[in-house]
Specification:
The protein is an alpha+beta fold. 39% of the residues lie in helices and 21% in strands. The chain contains 17 helices and 24 strands.
């Protein structure tokens, strides 16, 4: 039986999914890796760790396939967006990857905006340039590490480094390239205007392809390292959000996805290139030809819950070993009244992106009193992340894009309580599907399409993905959350100047 692989180069691990032509998941494998924060606002990862993790994961998957007489027919790639991987003329890595959640480049973002012009930048790239994006990281290296900058011969995104190791090809796809601030998103081509004005050598940038196109074939060396069959196609793939959109079936107008991963994402398809008037919503190429998507991102969604769990869970206490710490916390939140008795949580633990592109923003609990217990804080956190998703959705609505179906995924979406809470907050039905593996599943679907099993990713999604569960909003709770959301929205502006003052107090020279 032919099978198909999706490989996801994630923030903290390599996730590999093996599916059959009907979309059934046969195996999921995860190999963890770490990233470092060498200075405040910095986040870096060694690309060689990704390759080592990929090799380890693929060996396990290939052994499983052989034991079960599965023939791996094609590979799809996805991964964290925006990361800067730079190589010398020998294709050796010059420095650790500067990752998507790195916030060191505020001054370079201002420099790019001034050089290109904010209106022109928005017209070409569909976005404001943000500290997480790739172009400002290149300028940061030029300014702070000129010896390394002088050796640059190739610039890649994270998943594309794994492609290089598998196939020897220097290729990326248009969805991932959309997050670099170097792509003409409407034309789906590198922007000569931007590269010329920023002094970035166009020859450094990889070849562009559409997501379902074959980008290369597994080399003999990679086959020997990983166990993959030599010569099988490796599909161009997509950035993790576009691949996750494919994996959730966001392949038709009117559909949107909500991803409750480390970051939180509201993602809606558009058949035309649309931009927000001030660039607060991302406009990127989708992983479907001649299709785009709009996206709002809150940087710390389920990541906020993990941080909170690690700090405040009682799982280490006697008698708690049999209970999942997340379940324990949510049980307490369920018994807490909506609104947590006036307690609010701002999920800006890693700065923020949508609707506040502010690397200096800080997370906080607001409204604490002596009445509040841990259950109140848990509920406030879950509500605060949900409000942040509605913040993004409200901007998408203002663009005239009105999704009617919301499909939810990610680690946080495993909680029925949180799914219902989001339905109440956004005042729309929230759906779970049989597809639960997100981005790597979408990458595997693209591999299925490239192998000729379906004519398009949209056709594959309609055949493979089924609705599993529905959460309908409670009208009374939705009315209450309208008022609470309005108060939540006001808090950022109340605290904004304090974020700047805190940064200055810390002596953060990067800002």
């Amino acid at each position: 039986m032919q099978t198909f692989l999706g490989i996801d180069v994630g923030t903290s691990g390599i996730k590999t999914v093996l599916i059959d032509h009907a979309g059934r998941v046969l195996l999921t494998d995860i190999e963890e890796h770490s990233f470092t924060t060498p200075e405040p606002l910095h986040a870096e990862s060694d690309p060689e760790d990704w390759w080592t993790g990929t090799v380890t994961s693929l060996k396990r998957v290939c052994e499983f396939a052989r034991l079960h007489s599965h023939e791996i027919a094609a590979v799809g790639l996805t991964g964290q967006m925006h990361g800067l991987v730079i190589l010398d003329k020998h294709r050796a890595v010059l420095r650790p990857c500067i990752m998507w959640n790195d916030q060191r480049t505020a001054s370079q973002c201002m420099q790019i905006t001034k050089t290109i012009g904010s209106d022109e930048l928005l017209k070409i790239t569909g976005n404001q340039v943000l500290p997480g994006f790739t172009a400002p990281k290149i300028l940061w290296v030029a300014e702070h590490e000129p010896d390394i900058y002088a050796k640059i011969n190739h610039v890649l995104l994270p998943k594309d480094y794994i492609r290089l190791k598998l196939t020897g090809e220097l290729v990326t796809d248009v969805s991932d390239a959309s997050g670099t601030s170097l792509l003409d998103v409407a034309d789906r081509a590198w922007s000569s205007t931007i590269t010329t004005k920023l002094g970035i050598d166009r020859s450094w940038l990889p070849q562009l392809m559409e997501s379902q196109e074959v980008s290369g074939y597994v080399s003999a060396e990679a086959a020997d390292r990983t166990g993959l069959p030599q010569g099988i196609p490796v599909v161009s793939g997509a950035g993790d959000q576009a691949a996750g959109g494919i994996g959730a079936g966001i392949t038709a107008s009117g559909r949107a996805s909500i991803v409750l991963g480390t970051s939180g994402v509201v993602f809606a398809q558009s058949s035309a290139y649309e931009t927000h008037e001030t660039g607060l919503i991302h406009s990127f190429c989708h992983a479907l030809p001649e299709t785009w998507h709009v996206m709002g991102v809150t940087l710390s969604a389920a990541g906020s819950f993990k941080w909170y769990k690690d700090l405040f869970s009682r799982s280490g206490q006697a008698g708690a070993a049999q209970s999942d710490p997340y379940d324990q916390l949510i049980r307490e939140a369920v018994t807490t009244p909506p609104g947590a008795e006036g307690l609010f949580f701002l999920p800006y633990l890693s700065g923020e992106r949508t609707p506040h592109p502010d690397p200096l923003a800080r997370g906080s609990f607001f409204g604490l009193t002596l009445r509040h217990e841990r259950g109140h804080m848990t509920r406030a956190l879950l509500e605060g992340v949900s409000f942040s998703l509605r913040d993004a959705l409200s901007l998408i609505h203002k663009m005239g894009i009105e999704p009617t179906e919301f499909r939810i995924s990610g680690g946080g979406a495993r909680s029925p309580f949180w799914r219902q809470l989001i339905a109440d907050v956004i005042q729309a039905e929230v759906i779970t599907t049989t597809s639960t593996e997100g981005a790597p599943y979408g990458a595997a679907m693209l591999a299925v399409v490239a192998a000729g099993e379906y004519n398009s990713a949209a056709e594959a999604a309609d055949a493979m993905i089924m609705v599993q569960d529905r959460h309908t909003p409670d009208s009374k709770l939705s009315e209450y959350y309208d008022e609470a959301f309005s108060l939540y929205q006001s808090l950022y502006n109340e605290f904004k100047q304090s974020y700047t003052r805190i940064s200055k107090l810390e002596g953060n020279d990067e800002t």
